[in-house]
Amino acid sequence: MNLKHLFAAALCAVLTVGAYAADKLAIAEPVGKGGVPAADIEAFWGILESSVQSDEYTLISRGALKQMMTEIGLTTSSDLVNLNSNQKARLGEVEGVKYILVSEIGKFGTRLNCTMRILDASTGEIDQARTANLRVADLDQLADQIESTLQTMLSDDKNLKTSALLTPIIKVSAPAYLAEDFNVRLESSLMEKGLRLQNLQSVAKILKKNDLDNLNELEPKMYVKVGKLLEVEMLIQATITRFEIEKIAFNVAETGAKGFRYIGHLEGSVRIVSARTGETLASVPFEERVNFRDLPISMTRDWTVDDYGKYLIKTIIPAEIIPALVNSPALKEKLPATASAKESEAKESEAKEPEAKEESAGKGASAGIARRLLDGLRRTTPEQKD
User: For labelling alongside 307, which of 38, 90, 239, 243 has CA 20 to 30 A away?
Assistant: First the structure.
């Protein structure tokens, strides 16, 4: 065999190995929720397909995926998240596809929420180390983040530095919404700071499947077990020792006006635990009090006690709890440098601002309300009265 033929054979072998080395990836039709228009779902599907920039994967066509799903008795993409044992077995028998990207896109208030998961077609199982949850203002902002997110999800590095939020430990009588609202708000705020988190719903399903859905005070070895199941580096869990909306009657003698005003109290701590050792890396306490009297009457006229409670959670977590968490050494090293830097700059700026300037800025009607609300948010001792 001459040199020319030898080179051609070698090149053919390299190309053949390369072709077989690339795993085949299918992208299922995104599942729309919360009134997302069909046109946006179709556009998002196209964005996903055009954003896979990896030599390790070969995309298969939509038609091939549809045929494969039909063979195992599936009709919609939403079925892929909850396969039964028979479907998983049949999915594993289908040749040609190694992974399937499944996604959901829905409205979360005024924002879009996007959840993406990688399904291992050989087992029918969701790879919990390869999930992502994005909350964005609109489809354009989502498109800007998809490529880098998919690059991370499709990386060979399975040891993604993720954390998981566990259900809060509530030590007081509290409304049913407290645990879920607290964790949803905490998840959203931490992700905005750049912390990688497992999707709350995925965490709940995995723990329930393993009879670990009632997580109160755990021994270190149990935290390690939970960490292995979730495939995370750190576990974050809040303990709430006080959640109260205090209703205080008032009576103005001069005018005869009567009514009620409300003051919210939220106390407890957030623990950060190493999922490898079960060791507590940090415990960040919070003791907050919010006076609601400066909220506009037009906003609170029809509010119930639960409305005040939900507003308390919505206000306290991003304003007070998150800044303390992101400045703890355990989390600071896990966040992008810009997140902690911005927190420090904001605190320095506030500390340097002259008191006289703050008083002057508060003279306007809207500025005055903003300042009084800020005062109400500042930490106070239980002995202080309104």
Answer: 239
Q: Where in the chain is the domain with CATH 3.40.50.10070?
A: 19-153
Mean pLDDT for each 10-residue chunk of the chain (386 residues)?
43 38 81 88 90 76 83 74 78 76 87 89 79 87 85 62 89 94 95 88 83 74 84 91 92 75 94 91 94 89 93 94 92 68 53 48 43 47 41
Q: Which amino acid is at 122?
A: S
**Quick one: pLDDT at residue 349?**
56
Tokens 């303990």 belong to 239
Q: Give the residues across from 61 on adjacent strands.
A: none
- The CATH number of the structural domain formed by 19-153 is 3.40.50.10070
> Of 40, 128, 121, nearest to 80 (Cα)?
121
* pLDDT computed for residue 383 by the predictor: 42
Residues 6+ apart with CB under 8 A from 38: 32
pTM: 0.51
Domain with CATH 3.40.50.10610 in the chain: 163-377
DSSP per residue, 70-126: HHTT--SGGGGGS--HHHHHHHHH--S-SEEEEEEEEEETTEEEEEEEEEETTTTEE
**Helix count and strand count (H, E) for the chain:** 15, 11
- Find how far residue 191's CA is from the centre of its chain: 5
HSE value, Cβ hemisphere, 13 Å, CA-based, for 175: 17
Query: In the CATH scheme, what is the code of domain 163-377?
Result: 3.40.50.10610
285-329 pLDDT, tens digit per residue, is 999 999 998 889 899 989 999 999 999 999 999 999 999 999 999
Q: In terms of Cα–Cα distance, which of 131, 138, 130 is closest to 113? A: 138
Backbone phi, then psi, for 338, in 5-degree steps?
Answer: -65, -30
Q: Is the dihedral of CA 78, 83, 84, 86 positive or negative?
A: positive
Angle, helices 200-209 vs 220-230, to 10°: value is: 110
